[in-house]
Amino acid sequence: LFNFSDESYTLGNIREVDTRKVTLFVNNDKDLRKARVGQLVTIQLSGASECWLIGMIDKVIKAVVTQPIVQESNNENDEELDVLEDTVINTVKITLMGATRWDAIEQVYKFSRSLDHVPEIDSICYVLKDAQLEEFMHIISSCRDGNHSLELGVYKLNENARAYVDGNKLFQRHAALLGSTGSGKSWTVASILERSSRLPSSNLIVFDLHGEYKNLSYARQLRIPGPDEVDCDDESLLFLPYWLLNSEEIQSLFVDRSEFSAHNQVVVVQDSITEEKKKFLESQSKTDLLQAFTLDSPIPYSLDNAIARLKYLNEERVPGANGKDKNGPFNGEFSRLLVRMASRLDDRRYGFLFKSPKQYNQYDSLSMIAEKLMGFGESKPRVKVIDFSEVPADILPVIIGLVARIIYQIQFWTEFNSRRPIAFVCDEAHLYLPKKEGNPAERRAVESFEKIAKEGRKYGVALMIVSQRPSDVSTTILSQCNNIISLRLTNADDQATVRKLLPESLESLLEALPIMDVGEAMVVGDSVLLPSRIKIDPPEEKPLSATIDFWTCWQDKVTNTDFSIAVESMRRQNRTK
User: Fold this and answer.
1) Which residues contact 179 (CB under 8 A, 6 or more apart)?
2) Average pLDDT score over residue span 190-210
């Protein structure tokens, strides 16, 4: 495989071995200058001509050690003299990454991260560079089966070699795409989406919070309607009727847990909703479902009727002693609840929930919503981008969690032979999947995604968590991401979070996180054969996330902006007018 007849490749001899850690003794300064941190090296296993261990240089050390040297005296009567002398010791520390072996069946060399053997003491270590490095990188690339390889870019070690990840393992084991602002996250996401869209029946759903991906031509654009779009008939609008909310989500919207009567409010609201769902099933002659449905079953119901029942109980008077009426058991307990509910229903920002068109409140409406979100095939867009920028911030986690939960549950109940895998791309995940315990709305969203992170693989639901602040994202969700694509990270807390996700043997790779260029990523995990720095290919269609060049823009001579348009858009809560 490798021909190291030229001494320029020789680095040194092994003097210490500790599982995956190896220490080299380098004979002279000339050889020491060959070593670069992050460079690949190789060691041939003794007695195995077809097996080469591959390692990465972690540290290069030139140490001066002062040692006593005993010198003999010329005079027989004098004692021996102790003289101190400085000795230079050149050391290189290496982490073993895997081994390249000859596959006798397929007649090719293959790289594997498994280490069956460790090198012997005094074995020679060689630097991989030039033609030898190029040969190894081509082995890495060719190890990927073309049927499930996802091309990301080129290796920084050798830009002549294309870099691939295993598309199956990338999504099967979940992925986290992390990077500070301006590091190239949106660029990387768009590049992955672009390549995924070329597959005949790929299925990805992007949770877009800022409209960054709304111009991607290959994606179906869906948008949660704004306040003045409730009455619009537009296929791109995605209404999410209130009856899709489960009991926990309803409570987070309406019930204040700090109130003394909160328990009674929860019980009565649940009973009222259950009764209305029962009436709806009876009106649709779906009597077979009456014994099976639950409070959380996604069945349309009249919220107005449920509120009317709450008003009745809140004002109820019952016969008392001496023929005089007295307050009912719930009289006055729902006053604040009813005010909160009325406030939500009258707020046009929540129109996508409470004022959805008639076709969204039929028995078959959920099937229509599922088709809009999950439909796949040759004639349908493989990527769906859902723009949540119009959703009020206080319920944003609930709404995103609702979409994810509905899709997961439909996927769960789909017959195995009919089930097609689907992936969620969770952009700006720290905004709705927080690490810290937040308000009830945030908790509901986190619980939905934590369930998907733990169990989604079994049912073909994958997560790609995209965030600029990994330290703020739920640790439970991040811990389930077995693939890390980390771009530049400058914050110490974020670097520490990524460090906890990786094996100790790979910690040295993280030292480069603060100094990587835009579009460079450290890719580690089950989907890559060799943890590597990769320069991501730019997408053909760029997302709307380019950083504004302040100084350049300030040099332009332009007329004043018409702020009345911006003010009108702010009042409408919509930029489309």
Assistant:
1) 185, 188, 468, 486, 487, 488, 489, 521
2) 93
